[in-house]
Amino acid sequence: MTATATSPSATILPFAEPLKAVRDTRPLRLITCGSVDDGKSTLIGRLLWDTKAVKEDQAATLARDSGGQNDLGLPDFALLLDGLQAEREQGITIDVAYRYFSTDRRSFIVADTPGHEQYTRNMATGASTADLAILLADARAGLLEQTRRHATIASLMGIRQFVLAVNKIDLVHYDKAVFDRISHDFREFALSLGVRQITAIPMSALKGENVVYPADASMPWYDGPTLVDALELATVRSTQAGGFRLPVQRVVRPGESFRGYQGTVAGGSVKPGDSVVILPSGTVANVKQIVTFDLVRNAAVAGDAITLVLDRQVDVARGDVIVSLDGQPMTGHHFDAQLVSLQPGGIEPGKRYWLKSGSRRQRVAVEPISQLELATGKWQPHASTLAMNAIGKVRLSFEELAVFDAYDQNRSTGAFILIDPDTLNTVAGGMIIAKRAEIGGIHRADAPGGQRVVLSLPADLAEQLMASELFANRRDETEVKRMTAKQAADLFSNAGGDI
Amino acid sequence: MPLSVQETEVKNPPVSRPPLDPHLKALENEAIHIFREVAAEFEKPVMLYSIGKDSSVLLHLARKAFYPGRVPFPLLHVDTTWKFREMIEFRDQIAEKYDLDLVVHTNPRGAEEGITPFSHGSALYTDIMKTEALRQALDAGGYDAAFGGARRDEEASRAKERIYSFRTPDHKWDPRNQRPELWNVYNGMVRKGESVRAFPLSNWTEVDIWRYIQAEDIPLVPLYYAAERPYVERDGMMILAEDPRLELLPGETVQQGMIRFRTLGCFPLTGAIRSTASNLEEVIAELEIATVSERQGRAIDRDQSGSMEKKKREGYF
Question: In angstroms, how far is the first alpha carbon of chain B from the final one?
Answer without folding.
Answer: 40
